[in-house]
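ESCALATION

Customer reports they have been waiting on this structure for their group meeting. Please prioritize. Original submission:
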Amino acid sequence: MRLATTTNLREEALAAGLKPFDTVLTINGQPYTSRSMLLGQIRSTSPGDTMSITYRRGADAAIRSTSIRLAAVQYRKRSPLENAINVVVPVLPFFCLLLGMWVVFARPRNLNAWLILGVLGYFNALIINPTLITGPYLLVVALIWNIVAQSAMPICLMFFGVYFPERSQLDIKLPWVKWFIAIPLMLLTSTDFIANYGDMWSFASISWIAPYIFDINIAENILSALAISWFFFNLGPKIGQATGDARRRLRILYFGASIGLTPFFLVLLYCLYKRTDFGQGIPEWVNIAVFFILLLFPLSLAYVVVVQRAMDLRIIIRQGTRYAFARESLTMIRVALAIWMAFSLNDFFRHPDHQRNDIIRIFLIIGVFFAFRFLLSNRLQKMIDQRFFREAYSTEQLLSELSDEARNFTEVTPLLETITRRLGSTLHIDRIAVFLRSGDTYHLELATGMPMVAGAAQIFSLPAASTTITTLSRAKAPANVYRDDPSSWLIDATDAERNALNDLSTELLVPLPGRTRLAGVIALGPKSSQEPYSKTDRQLLQTIASQTGLALENAELFENLTTEVTHRERISRELEIAREVQERLFPQTCPKVSGVDLAGFCRPAQVVGGDYYDFFLLPSTSADEAPLALALGDISGKGISASLVMASLRASLRSIAGLRQGDLGTLISRVNDMVYESSTASRYATFFYAEYDPVNHLLTYVNAGHNPPYVLRGAETIALEATGTVVGLLAHSEYSQATLQLHPGDVLLAFTDGISEAMNHSDEEWGEDNMLASARHLLSRPDCTTTADQLLTCIFDAADKFTDGAPQHDDMTLLVCTIGRTHA
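Update from on-call: job pushed to the front of the queue and completed.
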């Protein structure tokens, strides 16, 4: 009814004789003054009761009366689809309202979010009939909400089209149009409050406006249609002007609004033409279809405002279509089979007189359901994923393989090239940049899709203390780069960081974790499809990043090890050369001296050593046989440094000894000064030097702090004690010489402490006594001519037998000189 005039009559009223546009005067003898009076009368009666009505047909017709028998509501059996519709249709408006509230909650500072709430609140008012609500206060709230929501929707939608994502050029040129539409709509809203109040509680109070209510409704509908049209007029040109993400958002909004609102707008025009309320006179299935299609509009509104990066419209359509016709089809089949099995079981148990075929049929139905649910469903799901979602399926497979493959690389450059190439081809990314840690800065190591200009590694760099690195280190997960989001972490970044990320077109940063800190960062540009990075993409990228970070550290460790091995090989080669050089410094042949047999050997503890022995002939001052020079020294320390001092000592000795000036004390003093000047304060040498006159058999020597050599003469042992301090420690040191007359059969043993102090595994020293005993044991053998080489070999063998393979801690050097001895 519209006020007291009938409009849409049920079968009971038509059977009682009422016709459209009759004016009702009384109901059950009471004046019909408001809709609340009618609702009260209906609620106070029971099914089967009669309701007496007086009415007038036409302006001057006589008053008529009739009785309407109220029929009980017949609950007919509904199909599962009808039951689903009856459940879903009342729920969806509340879903839209909650969706609008969620958008506001997600973007409370965004004006567009509040405009969307104003739009989405309309659907709740469109479905819910306030007159069905009991309770005076709830009824008032419902009526106010209904009026405000229906009036706000076109206004909010129009302003959204004007200002999203930025003000349209059309509104800048014609700013008055939106106010020309919005102000009359807001003014007419006040008449809606008056008309609804009078209709519900007092027809008399609005008698003055009653003739104009229908025209006001038409005006409101026209203005609403203009507001919606102005929304499209402002939105359309923006699509061609916008670029990037803004363009994708506008395209989604434009097509979502067009598809969602077009059926609704056509129904509205039809109702205006028929002069009926919205939805009246239209089949129910059409209204339901229009309503479901209309949901595309609020969903697109919420999507373009809430998401940080919008997908391309073609991607949404393709994925949505595939999802609806592929994956969800299995769910629908499962539900259909479950419903079929439930109805079959219900029918089976309601009729106990079963035939054999009935039993077979029910077991087959149950078997089909469980077979599909637990055997076929998962296999079909996998087939569907491969057939309809081949790209996503292939992406997941390829990225998983890449994650495993990354661990096998031992070089940085091939690893990064493989990672960027596979990511680019799999996810369709043109621009990828990789930053690697170098000290306290992350420099650009590799970039695809852009030229690597000179100095790019310095231009595109991120300090370890930058906002980008600290954010990734703290989150330990991929981070989106949203440049237009005031709540994004990028707001706190420096201009240099933002410029670097902008120049690289970065949309996602993936950290490469190390053991203690980030090993690097992968900066991914936009996909070719403009599709945002999905949750699955981020998870797979994080897995790849973890393996890549480990591979980078392994590659770095491998590189360090390779460098270390190369360095060690170079040092070993240099040491080998030094050893060869040092060996050339030792006597290569024994000088020929009558009645003298010589032997010497040095076994360094390391590759090169600091021990020194030498024997050489001195220039003769007469026609007699040339004197023989014998030398043995022990440089402090071991290794290269000691060998250098040894070479210096040898060169100094040979150059000075060849001059034959002064006694041996003066000679060693000059050698001391030369070694002192050419070596550090910590380097010195114990040194023994002797000259043997083969004519007079006289041994003249200087012992500069060395272990006293021994002369073995039968059972007698003669020690050649020190005659001065060590060489090279003090400047201008003085030395004295001593002499010893040698006899045939004498044996001179000069040695370093590496021989006498050789230790076994129990850290016990061999000692000089054992050394001398081994030499005497060989010398005491009858019927044998003992040579210097034999003595040297005998002593070394005895020392090695004692040490029994224990590590050699010091250089071992021995010089043996025998004087004309033949043992019979």
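Sent to customer with the following note: The chain has five domains: 11-69, 80-307, 328-388, 394-554, 586-819.
Escalation resolved.
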